[in-house]
What does this fold into?
Amino acid sequence: MSKLFRAVILGPPGSGKGTISERVASSFGLKHLSSGDFLRENIAAKTEAGVLAETYIENGALVPDHVMTRLMLPRVEEMTRHSWLLDGFPRTLAQAKALNSTCELDIVISLNIPLETLKERLRHRWIHPASGRVYNMCFNPPRVQGMDDISGEPLIQHEDDKPEALVARLRHYKDVAKPVIDLYRAKGILHMFSDTETDRIWPYISSLLSTKIPTDLGDAQRATTH
Ligand SMILES: Nc1ncnc2c1ncn2[C@@H]1O[C@H](COP(=O)(O)OP(=O)(O)OP(=O)(O)O)[C@@H](O)[C@H]1O
Ligand SMILES: Nc1nc2c(ncn2[C@@H]2O[C@H](COP(=O)(O)OP(=O)(O)O)[C@@H](O)[C@H]2O)c(=O)[nH]1
It folds into this structure.
């Protein structure tokens, strides 16, 4: 079996983690594991962890580490035969240490985007709440204004994407993320990308992954998942 590849993508809200993860998944055949999507699935299915997490999310708070690790680590452990990219987890040092004890990461992608750019993007971010699909009224608008492309249902804007809540949220992110970034830098697996445009960052990420991912991985993984 070819070597499996494990990566994490880090970045503040609006930095393009979801957008880039989708590109990585489709170009390299990796599984995209998003903590936000997984939480939403658990909330919809009313699992024990989902019920616990819901109040925190509604209040704009982070879900406690023990709930997150209990939710995410089994999901990661299930993926023994797949290469994956984790998006949204780990978010705290405690989560990063818990992940360390279950697997060895090959690389960590860290997105470093100017604050003004983040504010501008999130102001225009609209989501389809049931699926977590994300649109941007300028960068990737839906086909019909205000409606999800797949279900045709209305799009909404997150309360905490509105300008008043944003600055506090971004500051909080910075405080929590710093020790996580430091940990991965010390391990020598951190790759930082700075720009205002996803389309300018993407070629660098793509060429980095091309050097790290075994060439037959995409095809092999696609063949086993179809
Ligand atoms: N690793 C995590 N640790 C704690 N809480 C988390 C974690 N991942 C997700 N959450 C919770 O789930 C919510 C939704 O997560 P999701 O990543 O979809 O959106 P977000 O926090 O708005 O981030 P972004 O704007 O970067 O997409 C978060 O606001 C947070 O409450
Ligand atoms: N204008 C612009 N918007 C972008 C760019 N990259 C991503 N977006 C949009 O910015 C918002 C945040 O991106 P997302 O991938 O959700 O970031 P995440 O919060 O880190 O997962 C979404 O509405 C994206 O469609 C970009 O280069 N330019």
